[in-house]
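Protocol step 4 of 6: structure prediction from sequence.
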Amino acid sequence: MRTPSGAARQRSRPTSAFLAHTGQPSDVKVAIAPAHGGLPYRVRKFLHADESTGEAATAEQTVALAVTQFPADLGPATAGTADPDG
């Protein structure tokens, strides 16, 4: 059995995101990549970005860090999509 390369393993890890809408497409406000392979949890501005805006050792610390990065005017997610026509 082949073991995926580091890059393939990294791509296959699910990333959680805080979204502005319940439908698709939606605006990603903050994304969290899980800790794995010796890397810490990472908070990202974009869902599939490699660049982190912060790192933390635990899930709890990561969520607290992510919340500090929410836009000031962010309210609850709204029903529908980010597409104004749809």
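Step 5 (inspection) to follow. The radius of gyration is 15 Å.
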